[in-house]
Amino acid sequence: KLFFTDYGNAAKVEKCDMDGMNRTWIVDSKIEQPTALALDLINKYVYWVDIYLDSVEVADYQGRKRHTIIKGRQIRHLCGLAVFENYLYTVNSDNLSILRINRYNGSDVQALARVDNAKEIRVYQKRTQTAVKSHACEVDPYGMPGGCSHICLLSSSYKARTCRCRTGFILGSDGRSCK
């Protein structure tokens, strides 16, 4: 799945398959400018920062169990969001500090370090990486991902895929080759 935010005409948090199909709104009410987004892959929660409402919120992948983690002036100007163990990590773009926030109750907000001009934050740790199953976009014996001549995108499951073409090409009738 691909998770993303939008705050054009109607602000929302959404998800879709990697090929863009099955687009679904997770949250579309009481939301103004969702910017940063982070996933808890184990428990299937999506966290987001709303820079207009000065809040960090969470919901499950279906938009249920929604609640506010923290709200107010102390978290103004946040950009970037990462989740690791019991904490959310974010960057305050106003004073360029990395903040750590308890993701269960919003308490224990700590400035960990100052950084120069950061706009995003990521946690890279072996435990946060999910195990990869064999999938539909694996390289075939001819060196083509999923049998696609250009681009292979996972679809509704790791067993399904959609072939796409680079700019200037169109997909052939076989659904795999680009012309």
Describe the structure.
One of its GO terms (cellular component) is plasma membrane. With 179 residues, this protein is mainly beta. It folds into two domains: 2-128, Neuraminidase (6 Propeller), CATH 2.120.10.30; 132-178, Laminin (Ribbon). Helices cover 0% and strands 39% of the residues. It has strands at 2-6, 12-16, 24-27, 34-40, 45-50, 55-60, 67-71, 78-84, 87-92, 97-102, 110-114, 151-154, 161-164. Strands 4-5-6-7 form a four-stranded antiparallel beta sheet, with no helix packed on it. A four-stranded antiparallel beta sheet has the order 8-9-10-11, with no helix packed on it. The chain is elongated, with a radius of gyration of 19 Å. The mean pLDDT is 90.
Report the CATH superfamily of the largest domain.
TolB, C-terminal domain
Let me know the largest β-sheet. 4 strands, antiparallel
| Mean pLDDT over all positions | 90
CATH architecture of the largest domain: 6 Propeller
Under CATH, the topology of the largest domain is which? Answer: Neuraminidase
Tell me the span between the first and last alpha carbons: 28 Å
> Helicity, in percent?
under 10%
Helix count equals 0
Shape: elongated
Give, in order, the helices and strands. Answer: EEEEEEEEEEEEE
> How do the strands of the widest beta sheet line up side by side?
4-5-6-7
The structure class reads: mainly beta
Number of strands: 13
Give the uncertain stretches in residue-range form: none
Radius of gyration over all CA atoms, rounded:
19 Å
CATH class of the largest domain: Mainly Beta
**How many domains?**
2
